[in-house]
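--- STAGE predict ---
source: upstream dedup step, 1 unique chain passed
mode: sequence only
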Amino acid sequence: MIAFITGAGLALVLAIFGKLTGYEKDRSFFPTLLIVIASYYMLFAILDGSVSTILIELAVAAFFIVLAIWGSYQFPLIVGAAIALHGIFDFMYGYFYLNNGVPVWWPAFCAGIDIPFGLWVMYLSYKTRSAND
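--- STAGE serialize ---
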């Protein structure tokens, strides 16, 4: 539980940072964060050392990276939804396959960041879209 709460605190820090710096207005800020978020499990797969785990994590990361790029060009709401979806993926992580490089606390921590932050990005996307209509 502490890992999730710590992650949610970091999501709040990221949201405030984006607001204070004006980065949240940059079309590439949130997609770049999604790409970084999706890449962490790749690092853990390298620590695991299993080629099959690396290939699985590469496929999962590629899925989220495609969503990040697509969303940045077509529909920014996709980026927020993909960040939140990654949080759901974090909660379900242990049911899909085993990556021994992942710290025990990581999925809860990452979900704590991804779900509230993804919802925040979705809200900003909707708010921006509504203002432009």
